[in-house]
Amino acid sequence: MQQEYTPSLNDKAYLTAVYRQYSPALLAYLYRHLRSLEDAEDLLLDVFLAALERQGFEGLGTKEQEAWLWCVARNKITDHYRKRKHRQNISLEFVPDEDYGQDSMTPEIMLLHKEEAERLQAHIERLPAHQQELVRLRFAHGLRSTEIATIVQKSEGAVRTMLSRAIKLLRKVYENE
Question: Domain spans of the chain?
């Protein structure tokens, strides 16, 4: 009789697989909010340390593990800003990640794309903080409404409504320009 394999947090291969699966997206999310690679890497480590300390993490399904990690990442960002509330910081300029390697991209087209990305980022930054977060989770990280709802601890319908309102507001701003 063959024994069924159950993952364990003591299993190095299991831990490596979980880290490789979720760390790139989580690091990107943390970096977008912190704009410091060092701080983002530190918080990413904290997120996975929390997973190691959580009893029963390995028993969660894939979707539950992902949602739990995203929730912890979001909470770590909040904690980070609470700790730094009284410190004065200067944010780095937002630099969109664009693919400039295409041969068809002339310098003029590249400049237009960059200006458009900067305009969009400026408009997004004018949205209320909760709408900014939803827009980034949806479009920068490619998460679905159900996943976002788990992360922000709202209903799926509420997330869809808030996203819809944010997009309508952005469209209105573009139409008025």
Answer: 12-83, 107-176
Rounded CA-CA distance 124/163 in Å is 12
- Per DSSP, 106 falls in state -
Contact 30, 40 (CB under 8 A): yes
Secondary structure class of 90 (helix, strand, coil): coil
CATH class held by domain 107-176: mainly alpha
Is the pTM above the cut of 0.85?
no
Tell me the CATH number for domain 12-83: 1.10.1740
Q: What is the dihedral of CA 94, 145, 24, 21, to 10 degrees?
A: 180
- In terms of phi and psi (left: phi > 0; alpha: psi -120 to 50; beta: otherwise), the region of 7 is beta
Question: Rounded CA gap, 47 and 76, in Å?
Answer: 7
46-102, pLDDT tens digit by residue?
Answer: 999 998 888 888 888 889 999 999 999 999 998 888 887 655 544 545 444 454 445
What residues have CB less than 8 Å from 130, skipping those under 6 apart?
152, 162
Average pLDDT, the chain: 81
Q: What is the pLDDT of residue 43?
A: 93
Average pLDDT over residues 27-49: 91
